[in-house]
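TICKET: design request
STATUS: open
ATTACHED STRUCTURE:
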């Protein structure tokens, strides 16, 4: 019964961060003439990065992950774990300050609401060289006051001993890492997502069942790259913890986030602050929960560690296939690409074309009368420039035009 309590805790934490990270990965609303001013006031709070994980990156990802995992295993085995854990602990502690700071700001913004958040003053810092902006940083008034709370988890984590690191602090850092990773790690399409899930599923199977590397590194590495939940129902640490790696949250979560961006793309307004249909997101997050439940059931039955991606990858991929078939748009969804840079280029082209359209509306420029005209002259008074002086020629409008001589030879 206590194991079920631990599994429920892990499931709730993982599902919550995947849900929040999916919404955090959404791009800002499209700008129009009516809301351009409001969007410019909030553009630094909502930024959609152009970088996307492509199919070539997805093929290379399992290879790089295998090299990093094997490297850690060899270092732990032959060089010792103390100094490696010390170095990685400081690294994640420093990075954790930024991730907790960003996550707490996003949480506060969600609690206060968009309009209340915009009512706070914004402070901007610019780094300019030769009238060219090199760097800019902006923040709302509450954000600097969140910095001490962001430093606290990292400080407690580093000051604690290896055997007494609080699980709560580890979870705060780990969930912040997962949330920020879901906001930044964006797939360019479902082809890339399916490739990444399949590749990392094979990676997980091999390193868990084929060797001792994965289990050894996971139990030896002392870093906040996992979430923990005590096995005891009274939150006692005497019986140990149930563990879930951040990779089992971020990788399927990136696929779930892509499903939500697809639903937003299909909506009419493409505004994440308005209600829109979410068929692919609903199917994906439900499949993620079912896949995680299946993982925990097998792990509880066989009393052995399980590669979670073995169950999560097919579950998430099947949600796309079944939903696409049910809606009759599987081919379109499979070929769809999430490319925000393309929309930006279109906006830039429209801005370039706008002055051209204004010139066309003003009509053609007035005709210059100081240029000689073939086959007659313009009606009215003709201005002739001669030696820098302007003279008005006689009015020739009443004179008949001269006949042109034909140059054709008569046979």
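STATUS: resolved
RESOLUTION: sequence designed for all positions
ATTACHED SEQUENCE:
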């Amino acid at each position: 019964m206590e194991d079920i309590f631990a599994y429920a805790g892990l499931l709730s934490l993982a599902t919550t961060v995947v849900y929040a990270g999916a919404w955090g990965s959404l791009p800002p609303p499209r700008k129009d003439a009516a809301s351009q001013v409001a969007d410019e006031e909030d553009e630094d709070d909502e930024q959609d990065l152009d970088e996307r994980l492509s199919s070539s990156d997805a093929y290379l990802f399992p290879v790089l992950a295998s090299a990093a995992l094997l490297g850690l295993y060899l270092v732990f085995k032959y060089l010792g774990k103390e100094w490696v854990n010390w170095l990685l602990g400081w690294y994640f502690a420093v990075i954790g300050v930024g991730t907790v700071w960003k996550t707490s700001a996003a949480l506060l913004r969600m609690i206060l609401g968009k309009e209340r958040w915009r009512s706070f003053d914004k402070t901007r810092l610019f780094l300019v060289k030769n009238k060219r902006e090199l760097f800019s940083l902006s923040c709302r008034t509450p954000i600097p006051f969140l910095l001490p709370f962001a430093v606290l988890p990292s400080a407690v984590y580093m000051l604690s001993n290896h055997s007494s690191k609080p699980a709560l602090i580890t979870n705060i850092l780990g969930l912040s890492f997962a949330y920020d990773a879901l906001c930044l790690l964006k797939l360019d399409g479902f082809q890339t997502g399916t490739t990444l899930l399949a590749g990392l599923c094979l990676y997980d199977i091999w390193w868990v069942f084929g060797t001792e590397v994965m289990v050894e590194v996971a139990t030896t590495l002392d870093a906040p790259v996992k979430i923990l939940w005590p096995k005891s129902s009274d939150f006692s640490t005497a019986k140990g913890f149930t563990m879930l790696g951040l990779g089992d949250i971020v990788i399927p979560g990136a696929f779930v986030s892509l499903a939500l961006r697809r639903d937003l793309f299909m909506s009419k307004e493409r505004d994440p602050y308005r209600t829109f249909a979410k068929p692919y997101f609903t199917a994906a997050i439900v499949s993620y929960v079912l896949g995680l439940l299946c993982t925990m059931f097998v792990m509880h039955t066989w009393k052995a560690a399980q590669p979670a991606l073995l169950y999560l990858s097919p579950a998430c991929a099947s949600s796309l296939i079944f939903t696409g078939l049910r809606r009759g748009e599987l081919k379109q969804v499979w070929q769809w690409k999430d490319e925000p840079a393309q929309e930006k280029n279109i906006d830039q082209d429209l801005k370039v074309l706008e002055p051209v359209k204004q010139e066309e509306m003003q009509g053609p420029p007035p005709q210059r009368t100081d240029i000689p005209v073939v086959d007659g002259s313009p009606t009215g008074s003709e201005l002739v420039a001669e030696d820098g002086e302007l003279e008005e020629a006689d009015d020739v409008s009443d004179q008949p035009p001269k006949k042109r001589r034909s140059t054709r030879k008569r046979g």
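CLOSING REMARK: The CA atoms of residues 20 and 179 lie 7 Å apart. The mean pLDDT is 80.
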